Structures are given as structure tokens and as C-alpha cells.
Amino acid sequence: MKYRKLGSTGLEVSVIGVGTWQFGGEWGKNFVQDEVDAILDQAGELGLNLIDTAECYGDHLSERLIGDYLARRKREDWIVATKFGHHFQGHLEREQLWSADEVLKQLDDSLRALKSEYVDLYQFHSGTDQQFDNDKLWSMLDRQVQAGKIRHLGVSISASGSGRHQTESASSVGARAIQVVYNRLDRQPEEEILPLCLQHQLGVLARVPLASGYLSGKYKPGAVFRQGDVRERHNPDTRRNQLQEVAEIAANEVPPGTDMAQWALAWCLRHSAVSAVIPGCKNVQQVISNAAAAELL
């Protein structure tokens, strides 16, 4: 495994992390503790040390599964990133919670779920610029940093909107990392966000690096996803067009004999701004495959 500094945080993160939205049950599968234990054990054995989760991946469900695991392992071996601003209400349904008091409650609930006294990276989660520009919120969060509940602050910018304002303002609110959707099918961050991150010394976590699995190479243009899978709600025409583009990428850009998913992860990591990618994984085999992408760098 290879490691990179996460911006100016001082954290050394594995270039391949573990995304855990799937643990919340919105990707067509419900996880039990033994499955999560096996995934994280395998990740640890391969040198992965970064786990990314959120309060709304289930009602703190992903965090609880991770917390139960961490309670039986060495907490200091892992860098745990979670998020705030939403409350799970059902499949892909969220309540927005952005006041300082509401977020403080979310933080304490997340720490209880994670069975940890601190979170390594606490991220503003896909909020609007108006929700971001809240001095009381950031003052409260700074106090939690001083109290040791949070090691570092970050911003997970929304997939909608440019994200420029929040990226430019991150340092002024004490945030040291940006999480952004970035993959071979979505290169928009290359225009503004990634250059700004380099300019301001912000670490970058690339989420959805496999474009919701489309860049895994497993799906053809006419693919149909089962009920309960997030991808079922994707626009059919957009999905068809993206999978057609994936087929062209596979034919023209992926070297013969190279696993497409591993190529796609390494593609993200070749940008100098990107610290780590955080692909999801549903089983041990996917963890092994994801980790192998580091060998292509």
C-alpha cells in the first residue's frame, strides 16, 4: 500500500480507503457485523487505514457497524472520517440539520456509534453555500476541535453546484480537506476544485471513484439494477450513455490485461491534488481488488 499526506492535516492516509455508504443498506444489501468485520480486517491486512462514513448512512447504522469493529481492534490504527448535516429518514430520504446545536448532537451521536472519543476528520456534508456560511456552526466545531472530539475538519462538497465557494472558504473555517465526486466519467473538478485544493493545501478525498460501479467494467449499456439499489433511481438515458462511454474507455484507454476497476482508481490518484480514493466495497474480494490499484501508480 502507498500513503499520502492529507493536505496540511499531518494525517498519512492510504491512497485506497474504504467507503461505507453500502453499510447503511441503500445499495441493495443489508450487512451484518461479521461481514463488516471481514471487510475491515482484510482492508487492515492490506494496509488500508482510511474509513469514510456518515451519520446518514442508515440512522448512524454504518457508524455503529464500524464502531463495533473498532471497539475490538486498535482504534489508533485507523483514520475515521464521518460527516454531518443530515438525518436518515428512509431509503434515500434525509432531513437537513445544520444549526450549531443540531450538529453538536449529531457529533455526540456519531462518537457514541463509533465507540470513539474522537473522529479524525469531521466533514460538512453536501450542504448549500448558505448553510456553509454559518459562523455559529464553525465556532462550535472549533470548540470541539479544541476539546479533542475532532482532530480535523473537512468539507464534502455537493455533487450539484460548483463547490468553488466552499473550497475557497475551507481554510477560513478551519477545514483542511475536501471530499468531491471525481472519476473518469466526471472530470469537472479538474476545472476549478482540484487546482484550488492545490493552491490552498487542502487534502482531497475522491468519492464515487468508480462512478457508482459503472467503471468496474461489469455493466453493459442496457444494465438493469434491482429494487433497493441506489442506481435504480439513476436516469435511464444518462445511465445508458455513461455505460456506453465506459465501453469506449475500456476499449481505448485501459491497457490490455488490466482490471478496469483498478485502472479507474489509479486514474484518479494520478492527479497531483488527490490524496486518496474511497471506493465502496460489498465483500472481501472487492477490498482486495481495490487495494491492488495502488500497484498501478
TrEMBL record:
Classification via SUPFAM superfamilies: NAD(P)-linked oxidoreductase
Q: Which InterPro entries match?
A: AKR_Detox_Biosynth, NAD(P)_OxRdtase_dom_sf, NADP_OxRdtase_dom
Q: What is an example of a GO molecular function annotated in this UniProt entry?
A: oxidoreductase activity
* Keywords, sorted A to Z: Oxidoreductase
User: Which stretches make up the NADP-dependent oxidoreductase domain?
Assistant: 16-295
Q: Tell me the domain of life.
A: Bacteria
What are its GO cellular component terms? cytosol
User: Can you name this protein?
Assistant: Oxidoreductase
- What is the species listed in this Swiss-Prot or TrEMBL entry? Paenibacillus albidus
